[in-house]
């Protein structure tokens, strides 16, 4: 009821603002990095596996897509990410030394559970879930689990579940890196410090809300939007586009910025806002040239730029300045203003934000 909403207009907004608390709760009890965070006996299994297969749907799939970058670069373990409803119905090549990881807020998504059972039927017994509901079917079905402590998520568009899943997946990456001899004690300490500082870092990003509200008035009048990101932030762009289409009904799609020339550049006109995720990482110069390509075609850029990128506002280029680059955990910061942009754009259009048409919170039937 209204009382539980406190100062917020919708559950989605409340849940976006709960993220610092949700992340802190998810990290509570994590004293150090060890596979045993995922259950008894995980150390032996983590030592034995030679690849990771992630299965999920919707926003949880984008969390998995982000984790692939971490798992390959930090833990050095080959990783594939599959949409559950695709994986379960296709012929694939199973390897018993695979860690099968399902990601699910509800733990009840029918396709994800079926994909897990399909993987097991192919002889893959090492199963692990990152899940927000301790009593769910997914937790019961998987040998290992890590519970996110997002708390109950009511808005159909997932927000705090996503960022806490990323925290769980980052811990999984560090645990796999550790058993593979790729994490020194110093690196472990540094990564834990970065994780523990996340609630404060996310809080700082939430303070950008008034600037995002100012942009949302522009967005509310659009019918299309393009989201660009590269590398680790390409899945963030995908998640930003998903949020916008789900709740504002504006057609949005995300592209890896390097693919612009292979299609989406044909759509770029002054009527097409181009939202750009611009962290100060090793791909920044490449991204800046993609931004030039958009400007050269009269496209209007809306850029979320790390403070240390030196990307400046100019005619046709709007910039919201994020904190300084946050390294590997940067996706957790960059997704937050995209959630806020979708939320405020939907509010400006007057849609039913918490219950978008045709969508359900938990898809327990096919
Ligand atoms: C539905 C929800 C999404 C969610 C997806 C997967 O589509 O609307 O917010 O990401 O299901 O749900 P799960 O509970 O498995 O994460």
UniProtKB/TrEMBL annotation:
Protein's cellular compartments: Cytoplasm
Gene Ontology biological process terms, A to Z: carbohydrate metabolic process; fructose 6-phosphate metabolic process; protein N-linked glycosylation; UDP-N-acetylglucosamine metabolic process
Active-site residues from the entry: 361
EC number: 2.6.1.16
UniProt GO cellular component terms: cytosol
Alphabetic keyword roster: Aminotransferase, Cytoplasm, Glutamine amidotransferase, Repeat, Transferase
Domain SIS: 42-182, 215-356
GO MF entry, a single one: glutamine-fructose-6-phosphate transaminase (isomerizing) activity
Keyword Transit peptide: no
Known catalytic reactions: D-fructose 6-phosphate + L-glutamine = D-glucosamine 6-phosphate + L-glutamate
Function: Catalyzes the first step in hexosamine metabolism, converting fructose-6P into glucosamine-6P using glutamine as a nitrogen source.
Description of how the protein assembles with itself and partners: Homodimer.
The protein's name: Glutamine--fructose-6-phosphate aminotransferase [isomerizing]
Lineage of the species this protein comes from: Bacteria, Pseudomonadati, Pseudomonadota, Betaproteobacteria, Burkholderiales
Name of the gene: glmS
């Amino acid at each position: 009821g209204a009382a539980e909403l406190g100062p917020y207009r919708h559950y989605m907004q409340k849940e976006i603002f709960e993220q610092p608390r949700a992340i802190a709760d998810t990290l509570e009890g994590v004293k150090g990095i060890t596979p045993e965070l995922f259950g008894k006996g995980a150390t032996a299994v983590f030592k034995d596996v030679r690849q990771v297969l992630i299965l999920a749907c919707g926003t949880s799939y984008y969390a998995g897509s982000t984790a692939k970058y971490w798992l390959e670069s930090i833990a050095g373990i080959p990783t594939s990410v599959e949409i559950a409803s695709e994986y379960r119905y296709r012929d694939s090549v199973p390897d018993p030394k695979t860690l099968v990881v399902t990601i699910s807020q509800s733990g009840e998504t029918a396709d994800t559970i079926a994909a897990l059972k399909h993987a097991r039927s192919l002889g893959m017994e090492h199963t692990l879930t990152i899940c927000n509901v301790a009593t769910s079917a997914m937790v019961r079905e998987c040998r290992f689990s890590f519970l996110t402590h997002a708390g109950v998520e009511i808005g159909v568009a997932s927000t705090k579940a996503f960022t806490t899943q990323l925290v769980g997946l980052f811990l999984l990456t560090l645990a796999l890196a550790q058993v593979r001899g790729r994490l020194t004690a110093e690196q472990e300490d540094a990564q834990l410090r970065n994780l523990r500082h996340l609630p404060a870092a996310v809080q700082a990003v939430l303070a950008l809300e008034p600037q995002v509200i100012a942009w949302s008035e522009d967005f509310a009048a659009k019918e299309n939007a393009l989201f660009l990101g590269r590398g680790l932030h390409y899945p963030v762009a995908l998640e930003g586009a998903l949020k916008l289409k789900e709740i504002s009904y504006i057609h949005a799609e995300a592209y890896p910025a390097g693919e612009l020339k292979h299609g989406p550049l044909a759509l770029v006109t002054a009527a097409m806002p181009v939202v750009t995720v611009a962290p100060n990482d090793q791909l920044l110069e490449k991204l800046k040239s993609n931004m030039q390509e958009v400007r050269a075609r009269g496209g209007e850029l809306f850029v979320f730029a790390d403070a240390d990128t030196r990307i400046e506002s100019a005619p046709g280029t709007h910039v919201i300045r994020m904190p300084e680059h946050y390294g590997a955990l940067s996706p957790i910061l960059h997704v937050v203003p995209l959630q806020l942009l979708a939320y405020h754009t939907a509010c400006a259009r007057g849609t039913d934000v918490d219950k978008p048409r045709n969508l359900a919170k938990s898809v327990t039937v096919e």
